[in-house]
Amino acid sequence: MNSLVAQMQAVLEDAREALAGLSSLEELEACRVRFLGRRGEVTLLLKDMGRVDPSERREVGRAANEVKAAVQEAFAAALARLERGRSLASGLDVTLPGRLRRAGRTHPVTRVMDDAVAIFRRMGFVVADGPDQETVYHNFDALNTPEDHPSRDPQDTFYLADGRCLRTQTSPVQVRVMESRQPPVRIVCPGRCYRRDTPDATHSMNFHQIEGLYVDRRVSLADLKGCLEEFARELLGPQVQVRFRPHFFPFTEPSIEYDFSCILCAGRGCGVCKRSGWLEISGAGMVDPAVFEAVGYDPEIWTGYAFGMGIERIAMIRHAIGDIRLLYENDMRFLAQF
Ligand code: PHE
pLDDT at position 327, please? Predict the structure, then answer.
């Protein structure tokens, strides 16, 4: 055998032996310089190729390249061995599978709120805002609520030490908006409300409403019905029906309550709609002239409708949630489903 090839094979043996005894990356680097560096043993031998007899050059060249590849492979293996050992020594096993980081999601209540606002904005409503800590004047008096109305009772309303209260509805924002600008007005106000209810499957002391108010000349009950029907279809689908029932609110006349047909059972009756086929959403009506007077609008000129709806209720219908408390418990097993 050509002596050059024999020499190279000997170098390969040396390299393997040296690599096997390594215990650090620094030693590995020294070893790399010794064999594969610019003046390393393998490199120098390859340079000698020029002196090989031309008749042998092809065969010797191939053998030399094989040896070089083998040396490089031995280095790669040694590097992998050292790196693995190093990560294990530091308590980190880079061969373990990765852990998926859970991404956050939008809460179902926030989703309904965002969707509702988007739908009303497309209809021409703009978003208005008001404080959660409200004056009794805005929450009750200006809304034509009599002194002895049961909703004012401290058993139902949270009163603050300074005489204000936590708003029991988003309707006071109607008053604030009308106090601050001239008609026509077309606003929605999404927000938190507070009532001293005993929590159960359908009641929470803290819940959300979205309020709507439209004031202009010649606004009619038909406009209100059209608006709510359109909203229901946009939010829950074209098959949804809306039902209006006579009701009473101090600040609207006439007043109605409205129900959406249950989208879960298509009106046939199920557990969520308590077998009735309908789900109560909230109240609405034509703005009472007494409210216009309280804010300084002339009731002879201006007409308007208002509505309020419970956001949680809609979220519960949308996702077939049977208990309102699930929305506030922050249980990941529940929240991760949306
Ligand atoms: N504020 C009423 C409630 O909380 C709902 C409502 C809003 C009714 C606007 C009429 C007009 O029940």
Answer: 95
β-bridge mates for residue 210, sequence order:
190, 309
What is the C-alpha to C-alpha distance for residues 284 and 254, in angstroms, rounded to an integer?
A: 9
Residue 1 has pLDDT above 70, yes or no: no
Domains of the chain, CATH where assigned: 2-89 (no CATH), 108-335 (3.30.930.10)
Q: What is the DSSP string of 256-302?
A: EEEEEEPTTTTTS--TTTTTSSEEEEEEEEEEPHHHHHHHT--TTT-
**Encoded amino acid at 119, one letter:** I
Contacts of 48 (CB under 8 A, 6+ apart): 4
261 in contact with ligand 1, CB cutoff 6 A: no
DSSP H helices, the chain, are: 3-20, 25-36, 41-47, 54-89, 108-122, 136-139, 172-180, 221-236, 289-295, 311-319, 332-335
Beta bridge partners of 218: none
Mean pLDDT of 80-99: 79
- Contact at 8 Å (CB) between 268 and 277? yes
Q: Name the residue type at position 93.
A: D
| 273 band by pLDDT with thresholds 50, 70 and 90 | confident
249 touches ligand 1 (CB under 6 Å): yes
How many Cβ atoms are within 10 Å of 127's Cβ, its own excluded?
Answer: 12
Pocket test residue of 134, 138, 144, 169 for ligand 1, highest count of atoms within 8 A of CB: 169
Query: What's the whole-model pTM score?
Result: 0.72
